[in-house]
Design brief:
The chain contains two helices and nine strands; from the N terminus they run βαββββαββββ. The chain is α+β, with helices and mostly antiparallel strands and about 110 residues long. The strands form two sheets. It has a six-stranded mixed sheet. Strands 1-6-7 form a three-stranded mixed sheet. The radius of gyration is 13 Å and the shape is globular.
Length: about 110
Amino acid sequence: MIKVSDTAKKKVVELMSDEGYNATTDFVRVGVKSGGCSGLSYDLKFDKAQEQDDKVFEDNGVKIIVDKKSFLYLIGTTLEYSGGLNGTGFVFNNPNANRTCGCGESFSL
C-alpha cells in the first residue's frame, strides 16, 4: 500500500484539475523504472484507466495505481509534497530504499 500525506493530496488534486483529470474518478500512477544516479527512479503521472495487472489503492481520498513490477519496490511508501527552500515537488519516503540520491528522485535497494 502507498500512503498519501495531506500536503501531497492537496497538490495532486490541484494538478489533476489543472491537467483535465478528475481526482474523484481518475488515478495517480506510481511506478519504478531503471535510471537515475542510484539505479532506480520513481515515475509519477496521471491516468484515466487501469491495466489488468495494476494494483489499486486509495489513501486520503487519492486513487493510486501501481504496475505489478513496481509494487514490490513501493510497499509502505508515503507520497509527500515539499514546498520548502530545498526544492519543490513530490517526495517518496520509501522504507525499502537502502540508498537515495541527493535530489530524492532515485534510489537503490
